[in-house]
Design the sequence.
């Protein structure tokens, strides 16, 4: 281990060189790696997988260039990557990893261990199709099945949000009312390999916003402690409730952190959801990830035509913003939910949870499955979603679950 | 909003060019986004990259279907596909070629800029890497970004990767290209055989996508479909075997990733390597591995 750093969570010298605030034109992957650098992480263990590879490469370059003294652990698989950061985080070191698709699937066994031990690991996940068949393009079928592992999960709209969320992610995850790991989705290629302007704060500004990690239980040879030991039924139910409570606590912490971030850095992400043109909206589309940007343009165009449409960007999927959605959707006449994943035989995972949150609402909640396997979601696809919702407002709903732009399937 | 589409081949640096263009626009205070289209491509395969430039934040995240400018890094692509597809009527095409705009035959008559980026790159950089030179031509032909910003962007982007000197040399390549770009009009009327894409419905697609060799309206798909899909057109450089030097050791045959080399009995003491140009992609591994330097890579001149 390097000489610098926080010995067993006791605080210590920063791992990184002083970095000035700057504006860069970078990929989402680079934004994630640079944010981990700014967050002054002490340990990174990751295994490369397309389209996450650039995150690992970029961070390895930072270490090689001496910009950070962080420990970069080479591992032979994602299972080992997660195991390694569980170990380092348990030793009190702020830790970082990243993965995608099959890599996340391989990590699955270790994910509930990270949350069960309350280790606030931050992990960008580049959302990619899971096999079979093999695909490298964007889909949420990798992250959605990790819903119940005790990890928080959120999805980013652009590269700025990727960078900002890694920094905020540590602050949320390390809060002692939360102490849960967080995975943050970024769309394969649409963000991971797309360059756009991103503002990066200085390392001093980030250090001021994000104090050193203060763990509550630390693996320390001088003060031995058993964690994650064999536990009989007399105790596990209470421990599960603790995790359940932590996830519920996270909702308020997310609001507080996004608010503080907005006041310090000027970019407001509005907590778990963001409303766009919803005030008098008759139909509201719930979006996730990059389709939000395209949908904002469609909302603006439809507003100019006098159509009362709006959107809600579902930023966090866990904790799930059920109360926020009930409040934001109370005046809408028709609700649509975009999904880039399928729970086979049922519908989109986001739709399932939104419907459950809106139980008792007497209004159509439609599901739009689109962009599966990385199919480009063009403006016309989003317009179609709004058109179907506007038709449903006039009592012309044909289907509850609509597969957009799927050959041989009626819309 | 102004949109660019780059056509090149894997390894030619089209993506880096598209990103450097975005950086140049950003340096002028504009908002810019750039992204590649990622297929299952390899070195030599046709690839595309895109750039969007606007005065305000670009929120849309779709691919680009109706560009204002099309950039062709590899002239051979003009023969294999209609690169003008979707180009706006008042758009412009910028081509790396030794020919003049009026000598270029495309599917329709459009504003056309040509530049011999390959010769410029060989001259200034000593390598046939054309992705920086072409940026100079883009500045000249579109006026969307200034040549000074292009130079700055190249020094910043390529300099960070390849070192300061290489960054400055690449910037010079762009300047030389800027000054020698000829803007005119192309010829139109070139016919392209429509290449239908196989787009089966849910019921037409075999369960799980498991297919053997299948005859479809778009030709063969699945195992063995490369009988129709020849990849020799991907080459920029072609391997040429000197039979006098070839000792029949089979090292090239072993290393060829496309199995495009056969050992043929030509009546000499040993068999000789023979290249199948229908499938050779011009990667140059054979020439690199040959212990007697019997294979040389020669620039392929295409009509």
Sequence:
């Amino acid at each position: 281990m390097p000489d610098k750093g926080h010995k067993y969570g006791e605080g210590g010298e920063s791992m990184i060189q002083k970095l000035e605030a700057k504006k860069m034109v970078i990929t989402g992957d680079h934004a994630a790696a640079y944010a981990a650098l700014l967050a002054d992480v002490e340990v990174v263990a990751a295994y490369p997988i397309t389209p996450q590879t650039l995150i690992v490469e970029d961070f390895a370059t930072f270490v090689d260039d001496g910009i950070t003294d962080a420990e970069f652990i080479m591992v032979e698989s994602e299972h080992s990557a997660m195991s390694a950061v569980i170990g380092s985080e348990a030793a009190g070191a702020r830790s970082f990893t990243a993965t995608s698709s099959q890599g996340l699937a391989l990590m699955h066994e270790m994910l509930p261990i990270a949350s069960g031990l309350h280790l606030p690991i931050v992990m960008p996940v580049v959302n990619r199709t899971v096999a079979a068949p093999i695909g490298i393009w964007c889909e949420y079928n990798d992250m959605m099945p990790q819903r119940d592992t005790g990890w928080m999960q959120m999805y980013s709209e652009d590269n700025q949000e990727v960078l900002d969320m890694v920094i905020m992610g540590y602050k949320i995850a390390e809060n002692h009312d939360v102490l849960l790991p967080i995975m943050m989705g970024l769309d394969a290629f649409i963000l991971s390999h797309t360059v756009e302007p991103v503002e990066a704060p200085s390392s001093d500004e980030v250090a001021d916003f994000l104090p050193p990690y203060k763990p509550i239980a630390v693996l320390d040879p001088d003060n031995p402690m058993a964690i994650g030991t064999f536990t009989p039924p007399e105790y596990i139910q209470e421990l599960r409730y603790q995790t359940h409570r932590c996830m519920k606590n996270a909702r308020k912490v997310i609001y507080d952190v996004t608010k503080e971030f907005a006041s310090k850095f000027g970019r407001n992400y509005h907590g778990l959801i963001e409303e766009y043109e919803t005030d008098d909206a008759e139909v509201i589309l719930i979006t996730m990830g990059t389709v939000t940007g395209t949908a904002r343009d469609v909302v603006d165009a439809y507003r100019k035509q006098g159509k009362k449409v709006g959107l809600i960007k579902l930023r966090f999927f866990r904790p799930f913003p059920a109360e926020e959605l009930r409040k934001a959707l109370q005046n809408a006449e028709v609700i649509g939910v975009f999904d880039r994943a399928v729970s086979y035989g049922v519908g989109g995972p986001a739709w399932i949870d939104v419907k459950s949150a809106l139980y008792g609402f007497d209004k159509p909640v439609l599901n739009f499955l689109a962009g599966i396997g990385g199919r480009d979601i063009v403006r016309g696809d989003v317009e179609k979603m709004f058109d179907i919702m506007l038709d449903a407002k006039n009592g012309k709903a044909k289907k509850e679950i609509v597969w957009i732009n799927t050959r041989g399937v009626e819309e | 909003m102004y949109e660019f589409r780059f056509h090149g081949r894997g390894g030619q640096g089209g993506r880096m060019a598209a990103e450097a263009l975005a950086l140049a626009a950003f340096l002028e205070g504009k908002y810019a986004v750039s992204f590649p289209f990622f297929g299952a491509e390899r070195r030599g395969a046709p690839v595309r990259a895109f750039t969007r430039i606007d005065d305000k934040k670009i929120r849309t995240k779709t691919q680009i279907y109706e560009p204002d400018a099309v950039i062709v890094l590899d002239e051979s692509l003009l023969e294999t596909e209609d690169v003008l597809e979707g180009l706006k009527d008042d758009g412009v095409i910028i081509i790396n070629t030794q020919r003049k705009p009026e000598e270029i035959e495309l599917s329709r008559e459009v504003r056309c800029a040509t530049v011999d980026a390959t010769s410029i790159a060989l001259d200034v950089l000593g390598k046939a890497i054309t992705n920086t030179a072409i940026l100079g031509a883009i500045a000249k032909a579109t006026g969307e970004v200034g040549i000074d910003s292009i130079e700055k962007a190249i020094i910043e982007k390529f300099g960070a990767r390849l070192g300061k000197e290489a960054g400055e040399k690449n910037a010079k390549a762009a300047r030389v290209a800027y000054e020698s770009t000829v803007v005119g009009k192309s010829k139109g009327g070139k016919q392209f055989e429509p290449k239908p894409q196989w787009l089966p419905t849910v019921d037409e697609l075999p369960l799980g996508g498991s297919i053997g060799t299948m005859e479809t309206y778009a030709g063969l798909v699945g195992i063995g479909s490369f009988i129709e899909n020849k990849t020799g057109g991907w080459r920029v450089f072609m391997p040429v075997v000197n039979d006098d030097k070839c000792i029949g050791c089979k090292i090239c045959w072993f290393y060829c990733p496309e199995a495009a080399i056969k050992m043929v009995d030509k009546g000499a003491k040993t068999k000789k390597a023979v290249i199948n140009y229908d499938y050779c992609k011009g990667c140059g591994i054979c020439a690199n591995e040959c212990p007697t330097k019997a294979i040389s890579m020669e620039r392929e001149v295409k009509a």
